[in-house]
Amino acid sequence: MTEEFQLALLQVAKAMDGLATAFERRVTELRAIGESEEQIREAVKAIQAVKDSGAIYLTWANHYAKQVSGQEGADDLAEDGPLDGE
User: Fold this and answer.
1) What is the Cα–Cα distance from 83 to 86, expressed in whole angstroms?
2) Dist CA 77 CA 37 (whole Å)
3) What DSSP designation does 84 have?
4) What are the pLDDT tens digits along the chain (86 aa)?
5) Which of 45, 57, 59, 84 has minimal CB crowding within 10 Å?
6) Is 52 helix (H, G, I), strand (E, B) or coil?
7) Distance of alpha carbon 56 from its chain centroid, rounded?
8) Domain limits, the chain
9) How many Cβ atoms are within 10 Å of 66's Cβ, its own excluded?
10) Which 8-state DSSP code applies to residue 77?
11) Cβ count near 7 (within 10 Å)
């Protein structure tokens, strides 16, 4: 995979981590202001959905970046983590 793809994927991964952190801070704020447990549960579900969808996105983006870079083994998603086997 090219350095450009690696850098772009890393930037996306960091942005997704930042988004998850912002959601987690919001859950902490909701608890602090006494929001309902239902509201907090929904926010926690949202965090998990964002993390899961981000991981799926990064896995496929990594796969296709390898594929268009001519890297062998690009078809085996089972061995690839979001960023080169992480």
Assistant:
1) 6
2) 38
3) S
4) 889 999 999 999 999 999 999 999 999 999 999 999 999 999 999 999 999 999 999 999 999 999 998 876 555 554 545 454 44
5) 45
6) helix
7) 7
8) 3-79
9) 20
10) G
11) 10
Asked whether the beta carbons of 63 and 72 are under 8 A apart, the reply is: no
Residue 8's identity, in one-letter code, is A
CB 58 within 8 A of CB 80: no
What CA–CA distance (Å, rounded) separates 5 from 67?
Answer: 11
Return the SS3 of 48: helix
Which pTM does this prediction carry?
0.71
Q: For residue 30, what are its two tokens?
A: 């909701």
Distance CA(72)–CA(75), nearest Å, equals 8
Here the tokens at position 41 are 């549960």
H helices present in 33-68, as ranges: 37-68
Question: CA 1 to CA 66: how far, in whole Å?
Answer: 5
Q: Return the SS3 of 81.
A: coil
